[in-house]
Amino acid sequence: MSNALVTLFVLALMITAVLTWSMVSIGAVDSGAESWKEMVNTAVEVSRTDIRVNGAEMRDGLVEVLVHNRGEVRLADFHKWDIIVSHYDEAGALHISSLSYAGGEPVNGEWTVAAIYTDTSLSRPEVFEPGILNPGEAALLMLDLDPVPATGTVNQVIISTPSGVVASKQFQG
Fold first, then answer.
1. What is the pLDDT of residues 85-110, one digit of tens each?
2. First CA to last CA across the chain, in angstroms?
């Protein structure tokens, strides 16, 4: 009788262990499937996103950058964009700066979206979904660099969207 109780107890422990292991395994597979699904969604978004920097130039101490949305994805969340500028100052020193997004007028080391236009000619301001860079639209970005790039130097601006799509352009100081 005592052997039967021990056997039942051991069988109960084994069944509990197998069920626990099964639940953990199912949870791991489910987590892996969710991660895979998220990775595919991100890859699809990246493949549908395309930006081009059509122009960059110094004007009144600021760098004006024209970004054209050539993809199929609406772009917003500008505070999540990365803008990196490599430029030379008057002394010839190289500065590489990651600029912060400013909701309003940019100051030292900041950038903002000055306006969004329906196309790259900058003739018609956007009217559909203000503040969102829709496919085909162009955004005029204003960058305030500190120090100001030296006259005659070749500098570069690099722009990256939250999904990791990157575009760059050189400009004269």
1. 999 999 999 999 999 999 899 999 99
2. 94
